[in-house]
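Ops channel
N.P.: pipeline sanity check, posting one input/output pair.
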């Protein structure tokens, strides 16, 4: 898909309609790796089509995993490699996909071989040291070929026999996810326990990991959030067919649009039984005064007057919390988003980026190491928004064009809208479907 250098969004006085969500990035890449490691063939339905999943698919192909796509659909068939990847040497390009490079690093270290993993320049600024430290302490041989603590990496042939691993949990939950997914490769002859040092952030993403592992036949025993034990001899087995849920983080933009600009807006593909933590965003909408309804496979939001400011801890939903920052722009009062330190090590430094771009819209913004305080303007100002090659920045700031109960939306120009290709290539077309623009 080709994208323009920028996209103009005129003010919109209403958001209304239904959106079918793309597949969850977190579930899609976890499913691909587990299917590759499993015994048997896995049919994957509604896989996300995006830059991050393409990176994982290409990496698996280079590692010798056989997969095919059914025509131009989002259905794929993956032939499991039974815990032994065919190619034990490869040079892998991981783009800026944290959900690909981190689990693959752990799996490849556990399997043994000679691998290099690199990405785009921003990936080489995103920390991976806590994961590498945990793996090397357990017998892996992983070297940094650039800045210590960051990709690119060189994984050398090694034999991991450790019964226990320790990993820090306060920077990214993806490090623990990576070790959990690789645990069956290390627990062929003995139990393996993973201990979490410090506070574990983003716990709902670990719940996704555990749910997906259970789907593929592997059970993890938990001692709260402090330790995770895998009993020896468990192997991944294909469940046959996996349906990928719609992406709950992407749902937040459309639900927020309904809460800001009359609504109702309904998203299909997630519902009350979703395994994704970001469905909690709908409860945040309720706290801020929106009307929210649920079905088995849908969620709907509409405005109930002026939104209320919020002061809350968003450690459990860091991605969807970016959308809360945009809701704060339309709310009555000062909003504070706390415990969002993980924003600093995402696709960009999201705390700094969000503060900079919100100020362009007229908001008063204070920022700390792990918090953001937003005082909305009397009127949203027209602005040219930079996206920092960050898909969520591009999607979030579309909401500034919407008319809310308290203030009117503004003319918004979003630079580099192609950043959305990372997780939602058709985002701006979908946003246009639900927004009603003022006549010229």
């Amino acid at each position: 898909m080709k994208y323009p250098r920028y996209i103009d969004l005129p003010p919109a006085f209403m958001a209304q309609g239904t959106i079918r969500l793309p597949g969850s990035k977190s579930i899609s890449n976890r499913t691909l790796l587990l299917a590759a490691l499993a015994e048997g063939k896995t049919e994957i339905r509604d896989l996300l089509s995006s830059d991050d999943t393409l990176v994982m698919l290409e990496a698996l192909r280079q590692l010798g995993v056989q997969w095919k796509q059914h025509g131009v659909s989002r259905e794929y068939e993956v032939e499991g490699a039974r815990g032994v990847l065919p190619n034990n040497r490869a040079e892998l390009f991981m783009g800026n996909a944290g959900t690909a490079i981190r689990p693959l690093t752990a799996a490849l270290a556990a399997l043994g071989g000679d691998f290099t993993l690199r990405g785009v320049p921003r990936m080489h600024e995103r920390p991976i040291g806590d994961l590498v430290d945990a793996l090397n302490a357990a017998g892996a041989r992983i070297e940094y070929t650039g800045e210590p603590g960051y990709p690119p990496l060189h994984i050398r042939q090694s034999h991991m026999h450790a019964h226990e691993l320790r990993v820090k949990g306060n920077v990214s939950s993806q490090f623990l996810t990576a070790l959990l997914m690789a645990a069956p490769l290390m627990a062929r002859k003995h139990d393996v326990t993973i201990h979490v040092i410090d506070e574990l952030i983003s716990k709902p993403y670990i719940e996704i990991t555990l749910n997906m592992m259970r789907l593929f036949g592997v059970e993890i025993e938990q001692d709260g959030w402090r330790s995770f034990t895998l009993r020896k001899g468990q192997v991944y087995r294909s469940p046959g067919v996996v349906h990928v849920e719609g992406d709950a983080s992407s749902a937040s933009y459309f639900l927020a649009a309904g809460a800001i600009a009359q609504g109702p807006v309904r998203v299909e593909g997630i519902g009350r039984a979703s395994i994704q933590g970001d469905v909690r965003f709908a409860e945040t909408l309720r706290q801020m005064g929106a009307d929210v309804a649920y079905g088995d496979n849908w969620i709907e939001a509409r405005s109930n007057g002026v939104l209320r400011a919020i002061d809350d801890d968003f450690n459990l939903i860091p991605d969807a919390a970016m959308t809360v920052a945009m809701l704060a722009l339309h709310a009555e009062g000062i909003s504070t988003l706390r415990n969002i330190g993980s924003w600093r090590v995402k696709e960009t430094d999201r705390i700094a980026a969000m503060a900079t771009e919100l100020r362009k819209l007229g908001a008063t913004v204070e920022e700390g190491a792990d918090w953001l305080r937003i005082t909305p303007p009397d009127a949203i100002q027209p602005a040219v928004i930079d996206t920092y090659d960050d898909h969520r920045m591009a999607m979030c700031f579309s909401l500034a064009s919407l008319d809310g109960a308290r203030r009117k939306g503004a003319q918004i120009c979003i630079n580099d809208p192609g950043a959305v290709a990372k997780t939602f290539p058709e985002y701006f077309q979908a946003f246009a479907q639900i927004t009603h623009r003022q006549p010229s």
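N.P.: looks fine end to end. The chain has twelve helices and 26 strands.
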